[in-house]
Amino acid sequence: MNGNFLWGSATAAYQCEGGWKEGGKGLSNWDVFCHSEKNNVNPVTGDIACDHYHRYEEDIRMMAEGGQNAYRFSIAWTRILPEGTGEKNQEGIDFYNRLIDTCLKYKIEPLVTLYHYDLPQPLYEAGGWENRKIVDQYLDYAEICFKEFGDRVKYWITINEPNYETLCCYGFGNYPPNVQNLERRWRAMYHMMLASARASAAFRERKLPGMIGLVSDSYPIVAGKDTPEGLRAAHMADLFFNLSVNEVCVKGAYPRDFIEQLQADGYDISYMFKEDEAVFEKGTVDYLGINAYNRYIAEPPQGPETILDVNNTGDGKKKRFQIGGWFCLGEDPDMEKTPWGMEICPRSIYDLLMELKRLYPDTPVMITENGVGNYDEVTDEGVHDPYRVAYLQGYVDWIGKAIEDGCDVRGYFVWSTMDVYSWINGYKKRYGLVYIDYDSEDLRRIPKDSYYWYKNTIEEKGRTCYG
Ligand code: BG6
Asked: What domains are there in the chain, each with its CATH number?
């Protein structure tokens, strides 16, 4: 196998670490939210999660035994700066030093996400990403990480999913602060993009070896109808989900029609300062991380109102998604869906990658997440997850085809390394290559069929177009 291509899997701190009050860690907005009465859909917490904080070596060893050569994880801001700003916490730095060194011991390349949803509670209380002050605070935190870990970490990620996170926080309203207000959403997302640009530029100024990118949940968009209205809806969906992030971090500027639409919606955009334009220009990414899960079919909106439903219970019920004045999402009844309503369409990744090649020919892509959530079960012979194997196989094959057709894809990461806390979906929605028996005292790890499938695939594909 050619060793250049990164074959890995991914997690995020709050979803797997546990140890929520250990090692001098401060509280994050997720710690507080999960312990509040607002957490009433699947009322569980990440207090212990997979106990990765203590069991990380076992998890990393299993990755290596499964043929993986890379691990994407996130740093909890609250372990480095318990209050979000101020004094560094050496115990937290030591933990991530151990994690990184263990990766290297097992010949696993670490890919480090600086921010993956968990915000220090004091910063959250001061307005979180809606408050422009956070841009400087995030930069200070990022600089500490570059300084402490930059000698060994070659792949950095500034922010995970500015789009999806803010949609959940301010659109669906199922993540803290649990509001439905898109005007506030765009403001928070703008500050995330600004913070990411500042950190990218700062990373390059340090002349550290390696690359820095942003992880964007990006979606292949299909027009439901081939009419002028249908094509407009597809473009508006593209702006909403993809271009409002990707154009900014890859090309260094907001699309003009995106800004015009915010103005047409009557939103206050006075938080967009003229001098920020130079920051975005200077702070473009070295590579684009893509979290790939599903595609969207865009239709003209059926009315002026915004309707954002979400399925966090896996009850198979159809939900509506419409952004008034922009588009609504349609559905292909013939396509298979998960109990959470996610359409299974692996070939759509090929379309997305070819579109990214067309738009950003000089920017390499990393598939930083790809996976499918389901209710897995342990049997006497292990965990059989044929649906996951089929889904992942489809993606790997179509990504391979895109590489053959000239896309510069540098790596592929399955979400997730092991089962993790699935945010508001709790623990029943499992994505892992490794099953976690949450009822057992030692949180037993059981490799699923997909773990062995991935190991074989890495061996086989490593000899083909990959790498
Ligand atoms: C991505 C996130 O959006 O999707 C992960 O980066 C998340 O943190 C994953 O867990 C799956 O989403 P969910 O909500 O089903 O856990």
From this structure: 6-293+344-463 (3.20.20.80)
Known active-site residue 161:
yes
Of 165, 247, 299, 369, the catalytic one is 369
89 C-beta closer than 6 A to ligand 1: no
> How would you classify the pairing of strands 155-160 and 211-217?
parallel
State pLDDT tens for residues 372-413: 999 999 999 999 999 999 999 999 999 999 999 999 999 999
DSSP state of 423: G
Q: Of 341, 349, 283, 343, whose CA–CA distance to 142 is shortest? A: 283
* pLDDT tens figures, 237-258: 999 999 999 999 999 999 999 9
Nearest to 301, CA basis, from 224, 242, 241:
224
Give CA–CA dist 181/177, Å, rounded.
Answer: 11
Interacting residues of 317 by C-beta distance below 8 A, sequence separation 6+ = 311, 341
Alpha-carbon distance 11 to 23, whole Å? 20
How many angstroms separate the alpha carbon of residue 422 from the centre of ligand 1?
Answer: 6
Ligand 1 pocket: which of 74, 340, 422 to mutate (most atoms <8 Å of CB)?
422
